[in-house]
Automatic annotation (TrEMBL), chain A:
Protein name: Branched-chain amino acid ABC transporter permease
InterPro entries for this protein: ABC_transp_permease (IPR001851), BCAA_transport_permease (IPR052157)
Recorded superkingdom: Bacteria
Keyword Ion transport: no
GO cellular component term of the entry, any: plasma membrane
Lineage start: Bacteria, Pseudomonadati, Pseudomonadota, Alphaproteobacteria, Acetobacterales
Membrane topology: Multi-pass membrane protein
GO molecular function terms noted in the UniProt entry: transmembrane transporter activity
Keywords from the UniProt entry: Amino-acid transport, Cell membrane, Membrane, Transmembrane, Transmembrane helix, Transport
Transmembrane portions of the chain: 20-43, 50-70, 76-99, 111-131, 159-180, 209-228, 234-255, 262-279, 285-306
Signal peptide: none
Cellular location(s): Cell membrane
Biological process according to GO: amino acid transport
Length: 311, 438
């Protein structure tokens, strides 16, 4: 074991750096999905579309800013603006026009409706942005690269990958924890998540809370997409890839668990990265192996709480 | 002229054509010239591969419009029926049958995905419908059995892998280590198997330091790039394409992987426009054929310029290789019908007569001529070169181009590609033409 670690320790160190960045992106999307489920009790398949539209919008706003001759740092404003735009416009629209009609309905119907919405939004993306890959990597290029020592060699990493992605994820986790536990609005959301009927009996406007939560969740998905956009090329289908992985994270964590989402995103991110080094043929399935292993032992997820079924 | 097929239209078509099929009585007897030449085209209209499928559809629409303006084929206007490949092969099989039975298409163009082609060719046998394989690359189609009604109007996987391998062996003969990063699906796996077979035959002893097959449609390659940076292979091979390749190249460029290893990208051409200046110079690039926009000596320069300029004027982008492949299939269709009609003294051919006309057919493309050999496989030359930037294009194009004659890099009829590649001898390098500056 010691010999193996000596041989592979440096590689595992690299895998850790890669896994952190990957986990950060997955967490941003999964935590929004988890919050939305906690309050709305709907598994929103269209969450992946919000990720994709956030990414496309960030690229478009970034390209527009560049065309205005704005400095490179403004591309970071574009990322935040895109998340706010998508969350602020699409979030309320989807919640008011579609989701509100299916609260409390059969889970199959909820899945079908959000899946239909996902398909519609996929086509909307193609109508607006076409099918050719779109790139806008100014935020990544702006910060340049960092040489990480690797034995006698060095490995260049982008500073965006090393610092920005994990940094934003940690800030989001801390901000969410503070918001949900230290602010009145956050506590109201927690109350509705815990027991909607009791919260309503106490005078909480549950409709307003669901609208707020969904808008917030949509903005988180869009922010995840916006943060991913400088590192990847945007093509049709990116939303589908993301939502499947996010479901794995959420299922591993337990539905409704925010810190759990962070930990399972880390497990899945690191597991995938280590697989790329040690057993690349398992890279694709590692997230799902982790999920299945966890669910076999704890069907409610790592941090999920068993609920008594209400009759 | 195109036509979006609705369910209702399909039902009406089914009712109408079921009667006409009964009257037609199969292929026997004289064929009446139809009011329109119906062409069923399967392509990706959604999903990740729509980066190929939609430009190809656009090219087909543009060319059909030109053909119809010029009087059609044999005096018959052409009408296209597009079908999306994205829902999968089960769906496609149903759509193929519907195109033949309900829409009464005269010819089918299938497909981008190799899986789609493998599903459609048995149907062409069963339904006796001439099917032009307009883009898919799997070598298995004609190596696993005859398909009398199927013809591939472009090259295929074997020459598309062998030509870049030969170019690499000539350009960088001293490489000792290699890593592969291909998409995790049939093409990614098959192309690596063929490359490995050829490389082991022509340059035994190359050490493969990493074999990576990330998920098809992956949006992040940073871990793979890190591993490649750590492994420092002399050569990195990737037959990836579309958004996957764009993402890989961008992440690799940003992290200076192109400075450490020589990349071989046999399918790069379709992504170069999107990559712009993000592609590095000095790496080996292919186009799945010879149809580079800067082809050094095209057979018909005026026709190539007209195609490129018309496409650019209409869609504000350069045509990529699926557009050229679509144009090749349309050229083959024109030549095939012309030959079949001439053979019948000006009368309209039936399905069998049409298929007969394609056997051994030679048709012109803007860059060269392609002959459909006896097994149905098209012999298309390959051009491989070294990425560079010129004043003419805002993206990388090849220089030091080598034209590989199709016969030199294609598996002989009756042999299987991997077995043939294992038999290659280094003297094949002596057959390579000198590079053309470009």
């Amino acid at each position: 074991m010691a010999e193996w670690l000596t041989d592979n320790g440096l590689l595992l160190g690299l895998a850790l750096l890669d896994g952190l960045a990957y986990a950060a992106l997955v967490f941003m999307v999964a935590v929004g999905l988890n919050m939305v489920f906690g309050v709305l009790r709907i598994v929103n398949v269209a969450h992946g579309s919000l990720f994709a539209i956030g990414a496309y919008t960030a690229a478009s706003v970034g390209i527009f800013f560049a065309s205005l001759g704005l400095p490179a740092w403004a591309s970071y404003v574009a990322l935040l603006l895109a998340a706010a735009l998508v969350g602020g416009i699409l979030g309320p629209l989807i919640e008011r026009l579609i989701l509100r009609r299916i609260y409390g309905q059969e889970e199959v119907l909820q899945l079908l409706v959000t899946f239909a919405l996902f398909m519609i939004l996929e086509d909307v993306q193609k109508l607006i942005w076409g099918v050719q890959p779109i790139m806008q990597d100014t935020p990544m290029k702006f910060l340049g690269t960092v040489e990480v020592p690797f034995g006698e060699d060095t490995i260049p990493f982008t500073a965006y990958q090393l610092f920005v992605l994990p940094g934003v994820a940690v800030a989001t986790l801390a901000g969410l924890a503070w918001f949900l536990r230290r602010t009145l609005t956050g506590r109201v959301i927690v109350a509705v998540t815990t027991d909607k009927e009791a919260a309503m009996a106490m005078g909480i406007d549950a409709a307003k809370v669901t609208l707020l939560t969904f808008t917030f969740g949509a903005a988180l998905a869009a922010l995840g997409g916006a943060l991913a956009s400088p590192t990847t090329s945007l093509v049709p289908g990116i939303g589908a890839q993301t939502i499947v992985l996010s479901f794995a994270v959420v299922a591993t964590a337990g539905l409704g668990q925010i810190e759990g989402a962070a930990i399972s995103a880390l497990m899945i991110g690191l597991g995938r990265s280590i697989a790329v080094y040690l057993a690349p043929e398992f890279e694709v399935v590692v997230p799902y192996i982790i999920m299945v292993a966890v669910l076999l032992v704890r069907p409610q997820g790592l941090f999920g709480v068993l609920e008594t079924r209400r009759v | 002229m195109t036509h979006a097929v609705t369910r209702r239209a399909a039902m009406l078509g089914a009712a109408a054509t079921s009667g006409s099929l009964l009257l037609a009585g199969g292929n026997a007897g004289a064929q009446q010239k139809p009011a329109e030449l119906r062409v069923g085209i399967t392509t990706f209209l959604s999903g990740a591969a729509s980066v190929f499928g939609v430009p190809a559809k656009q090219a087909a629409e543009m060319l059909f419009e030109e053909i119809n303006k010029a009087g059609g084929i044999g005096g018959v206007p052409v009408k296209a029926f597009f079908v999306d490949e994205a829902p999968g092969t089960d769906h496609l099989v149903g759509e193929y049958r519907r195109l033949v039975q309900n829409e009464g298409v005269h010819i089918i163009f299938a497909s981008i995905s190799s899986g789609s082609c493998l599903a459609c060719t048995p149907l062409s046998d069963e339904m006796r419908k001439t099917t032009l394989l307009w883009d898919c690359g799997t070598q298995r189609i004609f190596e696993e059995g005859p398909h009398p009604y199927a013809f591939r109007t472009q090259g295929y996987g074997t020459p598309e892998v062998l030509a870049p391998l030969l170019y690499l062996l000539k350009h960088k003969p001293d490489f000792k280590t290699l890593a592969v990063i291909n998409q995790d699906y049939a093409w990614g796996r098959d192309s690596w198997e063929m490359w490995k077979a050829g490389m082991d035959a022509l340059k035994p002893g190359v050490r493969v330091v990493a074999e990576m097959f990330p998920r098809f449609g992956a949006t992040d390659y940073s871990t793979e790039v890190t591993r490649l940076l750590a492994a420092r292979p002399d050569v990195v091979l990737s037959t990836s394409w579309g958004g996957d390749l764009v993402t890989l190249v961008r992440q690799a460029t940003e992290r200076k992987l192109f400075d450490r290893s020589t990349f071989v990208l046999p399918v790069a051409e379709a992504s170069l426009q999107t990559l712009g200046r993000n592609m590095a110079s000095g790496h080996i690039i292919g186009a799945r054929g010879d149809h580079w926009n800067n082809h050094p000596k095209p057979k018909d320069p005026a026709r190539l310029a007209k195609f490129v300029d018309s496409y650019r004027a209409k869609f504000n982008e350069y045509p990529i290789y699926p557009c050229h492949h679509m144009a090749q299939a349309i050229s083959a269709m024109q030549a095939g019908f012309a030959k079949a009609i001439a053979a019948k003294g000006g009368a309209w051919p039936n399905d069998q007569e049409l298929a007969n006309a394609f056997r051994g057919l030679t048709f012109d493309t803007p860059t060269s001529s392609i002959t459909l050999r006896e097994d149905g496989q098209g012999l298309e030359d390959q051009i491989v070169g070294m990425s560079t930037f010129t004043d003419r294009f805002p993206f990388a194009v090849p220089k030091d181009m080598v034209i590989f004659p199709a016969a030199m890099v294609s598996t002989p009829v009756g042999m299987k590609s991997v077995e043939w590649l294992k038999t290659l001898k280094p003297d094949i390098l002596a057959q390579m033409a000198a590079p053309i500056a470009g």
